[in-house]
Amino acid sequence: MERSVIENKAATPLRRREPIHLLKELKAIFYLVPFLVPFTVFYLWPVINGAWMSLHVWGIQGMQKYVALANYKKILENPDFYSYLWNSFYFVLLCAPTVLVLGLVLALIINQRIWVRTLIRSVFFLPYVLSVSVVSFIWLKLFDAKNGPVNALLHALGMNTDINWLTDHRFVWWAITIATDWWSVGFVMVLFLAGLQEIPTDHYEAAKIDGANAWQRFWSITLPGLSSVMKIQIFYQIINCLKLFGQVQIMTGGGPGDSTNTMIRYIYVTGFKKDMFGLAAAQSMIFCFIMLLIAVVQFKITDRKDG
Question: What is the pTM of this model?
């Protein structure tokens, strides 16, 4: 008898808390609405519409006929697709490591107690607020083979020949990489700087007392302390580099030849130049799937390391 009374008393608060939990869930959904509405309108719906478009022959006048997976088959049988996909990944291999290393070095310098730290931070972050078109036009002029300041500086240093930065396949990718690094290194630097300031100074003081040199402190304290920031940075830079378009479109136009044509420009040319929006939508779906696959693999690797 006493046991049943105790059980009833214990069960009563649970029943009373149920409406409260439901109210909290409704409040949470209500707070998500300002995000879910634009996400659905500007992200989810275009993806669904693009998937539907990819199953059709679709021009500027609209849908013409349903072709099922024929667009996907046509893309996978086209050698240009693999060439442009490789160009996109090649840029990732060039740009992502360089911008991460430069950003980390700058963050380490600014994190020191030097009087020009605010000036350096501002100088390197300011390019990030510029649009991609402005950045591309700036470096288009800087890399001009005849009158560009870059070649003028090289001549002052003793080089006699002009380097065709934007028309020579040996240098063109480095030109695009330099422009992109200059544009985005400030953002990388700020994120690393925020991570450095989260590392307790007591760890460094204890390491100094134990006799650890600067390299040992960096390897044993700084890098582990930046692990979470580093994961975010690597993921962001890989995706950001894969989406390369503006610099190539303005600085090289995909040239010389097709050597700097990337997947995004391939999609742009197919849709807006050749008026084949169905085929361009299929290219977008494939490229989106590849980026999602990269994200999943990266998260699996990082989770395994954390475990």
Answer: 0.86
Summarize pLDDT for 134-193 with one digit per residue, the tens: 999 999 999 999 889 999 999 999 888 889 999 999 999 999 999 999 999 999 999 999
3-state secondary structure of 64: strand
Q: What is the DSSP letter of 162?
A: P
Neighbour count for residue 164 (Cβ, 10 Å): 18
* Continuous H helices in the chain: 2-39, 45-53, 70-76, 79-110, 117-125, 132-142, 149-156, 172-197, 201-209, 214-217, 223-225, 227-242, 246-251, 263-268, 277-306
Query: Rounded distance, CA 157 to CA 119, Å?
Result: 28
Q: Are 191 and 128 in contact (CB under 8 A)?
A: no
The CA distance from 264 to 244, in Å, is 7
Neighbouring C-beta atoms of residue 143, cutoff 10 Å = 25
Cβ–Cβ under 8 Å, residues 246 and 260: no
What is the rounded CA–CA span in Å between residue 164 and residue 175? 10
